[in-house]
Amino acid sequence: MKAMDFLIIGSGAAGLATALGLTHFGRVAVLSKDQGQDSATLWAQGGMAAVMKDTDSIAAHIQDTLNAGAGLCHPQVVRQVVEHGAAAARSLIAWGVPFTRDERGDFHLTREGGHSARRILHTADATGRAIEETLLQRVREHPDIFLGERHFAIDLWVEDGICRGATVLIPESGQIERWPARTVILATGGAGQVYLHTSNPPVATGDGIAMAYRAGAEVANMEFMQFHPTTLYHPGSTPFLLSEALRGEGAKLHLPDGSTFLERYDPRAELAPRDIVARAIDAEMKHHGLDYVLLDISHQPAAMIKAHFPTIDARCLELGLDITREPIPVVPAAHYTCGGVVVDSHGRSTLPGLYAAGEAACTGLHGANRLASNSLLECITTAAAIVADLHASAAHRPQPGSFPPPPPPPSRASATPSDALHRLRSRIQATMWRAVGIVRQDAPLQEARKQLEGIGAELQDLAETSHGLRAFHELRNLQQTAMLITQSAIARRESRGCHYNEDHPQRASQALDTIMQCDWPAPRQRPIPPEA
Ligand SMILES: Cc1cc2nc3c(=O)[nH]c(=O)nc-3n(C[C@H](O)[C@H](O)[C@H](O)COP(=O)(O)OP(=O)(O)OC[C@H]3O[C@@H](n4cnc5c(N)ncnc54)[C@H](O)[C@@H]3O)c2cc1C
User: Fold this and answer.
1) For 51, which DSSP code?
2) Measured in angstroms, how far is the CA atom of residue 113 from the centroid of ligand 1?
3) Is the CB of 47 under 6 A from ligand 1?
4) pLDDT tens-digit readout, 76-95
5) Any ligand 1 atom below 6 A from CB of 33
6) Which one of 8, 201, 336, 411 is least enclosed by Cβ atoms within 10 Å?
């Protein structure tokens, strides 16, 4: 493998937007552990928040983001991201993303929970697919971008305290290679697969967060896993998310006896932030011993439902459910990893040579809870910030050719039976769902930590025989990420945003980030930076 200027790990919105921006400044490689399009981005339905009309304002979008973030957003970052929303939208449009327009030709903006205005740009109810497919096409066409599909990054390569590339497994050949680069950008997405119930695609195993942690970068706020209130309850089928835009367009949640309940938890009812809605559903399910509650939009005109939600309508019909005529069963599921690799406003991590963007990063935008549709916005704005920073510093970076030759690759033996790995994976997911889920308590959190340590030890025993197996490395990352979430949850002795601990139900007076670094014996807490 020839040395690259920029090695981008991940081909979702964050990785692809970074790649397209960097081509002016050097050779770019984008790695993707499955097919290029397999990502959370492909699955995003609702859209991307951006202030596009005079009827809306930057101040209102900032305030909504701060409200959702429960005092833990970094105000400077929120301002920067929100102010760049229209520019992010323009970049996507310039790349060819076909956002839905109204009959006058203006962008059709929808509204989601926690937003005080209609400000969600969307492509019907398949916005992520439109973004992913458009950007991926641009990347595939670009002569200066190498797209390595089914290339699995195992670990970052660090020498003299600088990130100099990554170790990459090519599963088809079983080869493990060292890929040197002037700069590495992690865009590996989130970690929803740590949980038994998740809205996330199979690739969301926290790889980048675990890799960065092992390499010595700081990781923050992992306890803030956002649970989406409404995924379709249909045992045995692939997880399927029911966008909050449904509630934005009037869908109501109710119990099997037809009674509504959200108004008892929050005056905003169906439009309350998603952590409040998820906890309310969780409480009602536990109280009534239910497997699910019901979501009903059937009182709206069928033509409107079919026009706005064609993907949801089609998927439900496949499963024998008609959203235009009947309520559908829903459960909450792990949805968005608010924490991640600590980065500054330029996307730089605390490890020199390493940047991070998108769901793998913790910029400070989301605080303790993400506002709906702010994550695609963050992917595109952080990508632009990284491109600007690398452009500015390009002259001062070492040339890739000056790196020492890579050390010999590790052995590729692999003899571990996959059912052993599968069992360990199921144990991690069940433990996390039971003890580190929507509602937490001190004793189960401590118990989960012990169980995860035990699983970590079992994994160590398998390391020698499993080095050539992608499933092993993913499982190692799942276990590491599960530990980061659990340790951070133990350290936070309050309830805030999407971290809710019944033993500490109050919010503390001071807002502190939880930071972890592999050389520290325990997480540290740091005040959020004030707005300059
Ligand atoms: C069902 C669903 C609906 C959503 N709806 C919305 C929405 O409406 N609006 C919104 O703003 N957000 C939404 N989100 C969240 C949003 O989609 C994600 O936060 C965002 O797309 C993340 O983009 P990303 O580029 O960071 O990561 P992803 O799009 O997840 O891409 C990650 C990439 O990293 C690659 N990768 C991971 N590990 C490795 C490795 N070890 N080696 C090589 N490659 C690797 C993967 O193959 C993939 O290409 C939704 C999420 C889901 C799951």
Assistant:
1) -
2) 20
3) yes
4) 999 999 999 999 999 999 99
5) yes
6) 411
**Among the ranges given (144-148, 161-165, 191-195, 409-413), the one the predictor scored with the smallest mean pLDDT:** 409-413
Q: Look at residue 397 in the predicted model and tell me its pLDDT.
A: 52
Q: Position 257: which residue type? A: D
For residue 41, report the distance from its CA to the centre of ligand 1, in Å: 4
Q: Write a three-state SS string for 169-200.
A: EECCCCEEEEEEEEEEEECCCCCHHHCCCECC
* Cβ–ligand 1 contact at 44 (below 6 Å): yes
* 175 CB neighbour count, 10 Å cutoff: 12
Ligand 1 in reach of 14 Cβ (< 6 A): yes
Q: What is the dihedral of CA 105, 37, 340, 95, to 10 degrees?
A: -40
pLDDT tens for 203-259 read: 999 999 999 999 999 999 999 999 999 999 988 788 899 988 899 899 999 999 999
What is the average pLDDT across 5-15? Answer: 97
What would the two tokens of residue 478 be? 């799942």
Q: How far is the CA of 127 from the centre of ligand 1 (A)?
A: 13
Most informative mutation of 376, 474, 475, 476 for ligand 1 (most atoms within 8 A of CB): 376
User: In terms of pLDDT, which residue wins out, 45 or 386?
Assistant: 386
As annotated, the active-site residues are: 274
SS3 382: helix
Q: Is the CB of 340 under 6 A from ligand 1?
A: no
Q: Is 249 exposed, middle or buried (0-12, 13-18, 19+ CB in 10 A)?
A: middle
User: In the chain, what percentage of residues exceed pLDDT 70?
Assistant: 95
3-state secondary structure of 519: coil
DSSP class of 343: -
Give dist(CA 209, CA 337) in Å, integer: 10
Ligand 1 atom with least separation from CA of 244: 8
- Taking Cα atoms as reference points, which of 345, 290, 268 lies closest to residue 114? 268
Kindly report, residue by residue over 150-205, the tens digit of the pLDDT: 999 999 999 999 999 999 998 778 889 999 999 999 999 999 999 988 999 999 99
DSSP single-letter state for residue 440 = B
Cβ-contact 52, 86 below 8 angstroms: yes
